C-alpha cells in the first residue's frame, strides 16, 4: 500500500484539478480522485512507465463517465447552473483550514476561472477533455490520444474546434490582477452599501448577472441583463443581507482571482466572482448561493484516504 500511495500523493492535486476542470464540481472531483486511488491501488503497477500519465488517464476516463450523468441532472436543475467555486489562496471561509499554498498556482490558478468553466460547459465531453489536457496542462496530442483512446489526428481536430469555441466566448483581453482586485473592491463597497448609483458606476451597461441557488437558496431563475436591473437586484440582496445575523462578507482568492465570499458563522453563505470589460467595469457577475456548491470555499478540496 505504501508503494502505491507515494506516487499517487505526488499527483493527487493534479488529478483533482483535471477532474474539477472536467466536471465543474468539487464534490464530483473528490469522488473521481478517490475512485482513481481505488483503481490505482488495485492495479498491477510493475509495467507502468509513466505514473503521471497512467493516473491522468484513469481520472480523465472516470470524469468522462460522470459527465454524462451530471449533464442529465443539470437539465432538471432549478434555475441557472454554475460551476462550484474553489478557494485557491488565503484562508478559507469561516476559519476553515487554509487553501492550497501558492506553489500550486500553475495547477489551481487562473486556468480554473469560474468564467472559463462556464464556457467549458458548452463543449462536448470529448472536446472538453482535449481542451483541459492540451490547453491547460500542456499534454501533447500523442499523450491525450493515449488517455482518450483516440487517434492523434482526431485529438488535434477536436482541440482546434474546442480552442476556437472557447476563444470566441472568453474575454478577449487579459486583466491585470491588481486591476481585478481594485475593481472587485469597488464593486464590493458599492454592493455592500446597497448604493444603486455607486453600483451603476462600476457596472458595464450590458453587464450580465447569473445567480445559482439550485432551488435551495434565494436566487433569480434567469440571468439578469443590463446595469440598471443588475444594480437594483444587488441593492435588494444587500438590504436583505443586513438582516442576516452573523453574516460576514470579504474578499478572497477564488478560482485564481479576487472574488467576494460570505459566511454566516462558520458556514459559507455565498461566492461572487466578476469578469471585467476592457474599460475596467464589471461585465459579468457569477453569484453562487446553493449551499451544496459552497464546500470548495469552506475547506481544502481533497480529503485523505
From TrEMBL:
Residues 114-165 form the RNA polymerase sigma factor 70 region 4 type domain. Keywords: Sigma factor, Transcription, Transcription regulation. CDD domains: Sigma70_r4. Residues 185-254 form the SnoaL-like domain. Residues 164-178 have a biased composition (Basic and acidic residues). One of its GO terms (biological process) is DNA-templated transcription initiation. It comes from the Bacteria. GO terms for molecular function: DNA binding; sigma factor activity. Residues 8-71 form the RNA polymerase sigma-70 region domain. Residues 159-178 are annotated as: Disordered. Pfam families: Sigma70_r2, Sigma70_r4_2, SnoaL_2. The keyword Endoplasmic reticulum does not apply. The keyword Calcium does not apply. NCBIfam families: PRK09636.1, sigma70-ECF, SigX4. Interacts transiently with the RNA polymerase catalytic core formed by RpoA, RpoB, RpoC and RpoZ (2 alpha, 1 beta, 1 beta' and 1 omega subunit) to form the RNA polymerase holoenzyme that can initiate transcription. Belongs to the sigma-70 factor family. ECF subfamily. This is RNA polymerase sigma-70 factor, ECF subfamily.
